[in-house]
Amino acid sequence: MDRELFELEKAIDEISKRAKKFGLDFFSMRFELCPADVLYTIGAYGMPTRFTHWSFGKQYFRLKTMYDFNLSRIYELVINSNPCYAFLLEGNSLLQNKLVIAHVYAHCDFFKNNIWFKRTNRDMIETMSVNAARIREYEFLYGQEEVEKTLDGALAIQEHIDFHRLNKKGQQEKGRKSVKPETPYDDIWSIGNNGREEEEIAEAEKFPPSPEKDLIGFIMNHSHCLKDWQREVLAMVRDEMYYFWPQVETKIMNEGWAALWHARILRDMDLNEDEALEFARLHAGILHTSRTGLNPYLLGMKIFEDIEKRWENPPPEEREKFCRPGGEGLAKIFEVRETENDISFLRNYLTRDLVRELDLYLYKKQGQQWKVTDTEWETVRDGIVANLVNGGHPYLLVEDGDYKKSGHLFIRHCHEGVDLDTFYLEKTLPHVYNLWGKTVHLETILEGRSVIFSFDGTKNIRSFKG
Amino acid sequence: MTDKSIISRDNWTLHRKGELDQQRHNEKVREAIKNNLSDIISEESVIMSDGKKITKLPIRTLDEYRFRFNYNKQKHGGQGEGGSRPGDVIHTERDHDGKGGPGAGDAPGVDYYEADVSFDELAEIVFADLVLPNLKEKKKENLQAVSTRFTDVRKAGIYSNIDKKRTILEAIKRNARKGSDKYNIAREDLRFKTWETVYRAESNAVVIAMMDTSGSMGNYEKYIARTFFFWMVKFLRTKYQHVEIVFLAHHTQAKEVSEEEFFTKGESGGTKCSSVYQLALEIIRQRYNPARYNIYPFHFSDGDNLPSDNDTCFELINQILPLCNLFGYGEITSPYYRNSTLISVFERIKRDNLTTVTIKSKKEIYPALKKFFSQKGDSGGQGTI
Description:
The complex is a heterodimer. By secondary structure, chain A is an alpha+beta fold. Chain A has 19 helices and ten strands. Among the domains of chain A are: 3-114 and 250-284, no CATH class; 287-389, no CATH class; 392-464, no CATH class. In chain A, 55% of the residues lie in helices and 13% in strands. In chain B, helix 6 (219-239) crosses helix 11 (365-372), helix 8 (273-287) runs parallel beside helix 9 and helix 9 (310-320) crosses helix 10 (342-348). Chain B has a six-stranded mixed β-sheet with strand order 10-9-8-11-12-13. A two-stranded antiparallel sheet of chain B has the order 2-5.
């Protein structure tokens, strides 16, 4: 057995014992040592077995170039699955890999215990491998061009799923009345309130009955032009997005949690002087700050540390106000990691003191300059949270799948203060058109004015309202 | 322990998915370049590049489009080193530095995917459709160049040419045959690199760049001419070892000028094209023997020639044509005036190696190149694009 593996096996044993001791609860781990280009491939695709598409190739090239020029490296690559797969970079120093291993155990604990991951498919590696094989088969049957075109379209709208539908489901069922009369005599009940009945019927004829957030699913089911295999492709892309979604919504927590524990685990280990120094340097590198962005590792870790502190030794005010007895620090952070996602995490636990301590702010482009606009803590907190809503993507709803009674698709952008990138918008609509098969409209607001963008297969049209 | 952790190392050598998809992406980049060639080859950044540097090309079709927010109108979260206040400047954008603000998203409406395409790669795509028409055999004895190439390995030779790798391989083989575990290098193991003399036919070409510098030729017209000559010289260099360029400027009189003068100096006055044809003819006779040179005279003008001069032009062009490989005439017309008289002269001449084009905008440079350097050359190829 080669030396590198032997050393790593020893390290894994030590680290997993410590992780358990600290209370982390994880799936069995499968570590895989692989060369840089393989690691970067997996990083670009998000999964070792995912289907092929040029955009992943582009991403791979970008990552690998950054690595080759020593601009950035992927430290850890871990897959949410059971058993949990993690990939280590060949040629990393032993200490680097120790840190990665510790980091990965914390991620795995998060995957296993955070509530938003409860419904994810833990066999996704297999599922994606099957999907990839199917897409390959479609390429043989229908040609690479056709498959690529379908994938281009599917990927252009892949973020528009309705992840939280599952939680809303019960509510919706209750609210929805059965539209069709159950017996021929049902209309007898409506005698006496004619007007309202008609309104309800008009409502009922709407398609979809209520605005539909799951754009890709709606197109998959109701497209005018897609063939069965193309619907299949959309379904796969959609499933994979459902799988990735909780990772998008818990980025800050997940990375913060992992940074917190890799530090604690490594500090608990017997490191010699060189290793301790290397660890300190690496850890500091991971926690670097940036004037133009938020470092999820740092932000998440700081919030977790703050929560632990405030529940372990509550300040007198909090002790009194919230009846917090103290000594609950560790239990509290484990509870938070189980029940929150980034949005609730920041809303509930990003305090005034933290905003000031970390010197967080909002900034915006003004003329040629990017300037700080807000430092007031609640504005900053809400601004950061606002950028996380819907995974940071515009919130779109399918309002009408039979617009103008001619089968057009009408999508409404729920404008929440930020305009859309119109250049991208006009480039994306043709993709939607290709999938839908008839004219596609999108209503949004530009500079305070309501506007509808339409693409009819040949050209983009903008029509301003009012 | 129930949940045993395992570490392993597999053989990943066949895992080339990333590389393959990257190739597909490259294909698409090239496709995009191809679709936008007319725009790209007249980009200033390309023309000014020294031919070695990587050129950044504007390509408008490779982004992964999706519905997204206008980055420039959004508020973003950031982190300072303490004491940040509203109004603090984080970053200032310089004009056209291409790097833009933090993160993605340039100004909406203009989106560049910055493809690192080397000049050679671009040239390869541009030249893919171009061919040299009317190639003539030139006298052989004047066209030979001698060079040496290392091609062979022998058992004897000069010690400075010893082939270390092969020598060691031989030594290992011999020792292995003997079964001894001591390694040594014997005389019989020595291998030497040997060269042979290669005779190559050398070909020369000369471009006679002629331009009308009369008052009516403005910067814009010159830019078009310059772009055209730039690509033409690049292209000829791929076909010939040596390409010389002679710059001739003319209004009513013609003279030989330096490259810089050719493109920058503005003159005024009327136009007498016969002057430059006369000069070109003299230069060919004195310096560029058609037996040894491939000659490419190209003339750019706005066509506003003195009508009385046209007959002289006709005579001179007919004298030049048999001497050269390809005579090109490009007329740069602006939408404002169209009273060309020169082109009627060319219309009277029917020869395979004469091509005329009319260029109205930067976009038409590439089609013009394609027209000049196409194999057909059948009917003299006159006409507009």
